[in-house]
Amino acid sequence: VQLQAYGGGLVQAGGSLRLSCAASGRAFSNNAMGWFRQAPGKEREFVATINWNGGTTFYSASVKGRFTISRDRVKSTVYLQMNSLKPEDTAVYYCAASIGSSATDRTGDYTKWGQGTQVTVSS
Fold first, then answer.
1. Given this model, what pLDDT does residue 24 score?
2. pLDDT tens per residue across span 74-108
3. What is the dihedral of CA 95, 97, 103, 107, to 10 degrees?
4. Neighbour count for residue 105 (Cβ, 10 Å)
5. Distances in whole angstroms, Cα of residue 50 to Cα of each of 4, 9, 18, 79, 93
6. Four-residue CA torsion sign, 18, 70, 79, 13
7. Sites in the chain below the pLDDT cut of 70
């Protein structure tokens, strides 16, 4: 059972990236999913979450209005569309599957984590 995050890269400030997180071995179609990030020297922080059917989403204040989380339950894939990127968005981004079906920003609710993908935003 794996979560594979990809789509990171180097982008200039103001640019866009779309991250994807594909589940293999087991579908997480009934689980809430989330994106977190960790910058060098900082703790891992919540970015966005989506409930099991995509009907509810939450965002951190720092990304609200710029990032959009979505999911394709058939493809067992979760996406994070990131627009108007800023240098402070630079971090390793992780996707994770929650133990429950409701959207949640609590790190402790997530029991399965992907390996992370690096996003670097240059000024």
1. 80
2. 889 999 999 999 999 999 999 999 999 999 999 99
3. -70
4. 16
5. 17, 23, 16, 10, 16
6. positive
7. 1, 25
| CA atoms of 35 and 60, how far apart (whole Å) | 10
**Strand, coil or helix: 112:** strand
**Residue 32 in contact with residue 103, Cβ under 8 Å?**
yes
Structure tokens at 12: 């200039």
Return all residues near 87 (Cβ < 8 A) that are at least 6 apart.
13, 121, 122, 123
pLDDT at 1: 63
DSSP of 45-110:
EEEEEE-TTSS-EEE-TTTTTTEEEEEETTTTEEEEEE-S--GGG-EEEEEEEESSSS----GGGE
- DSSP-assigned states of every residue in 2-39: EEEEE--EEEETT--EEEEEEEESS--TTS-EEEEEE-
Q: In Å, how far are 32, 38, 59 from 45, measured between CA atoms? A: 17, 6, 11
SS3 114: coil
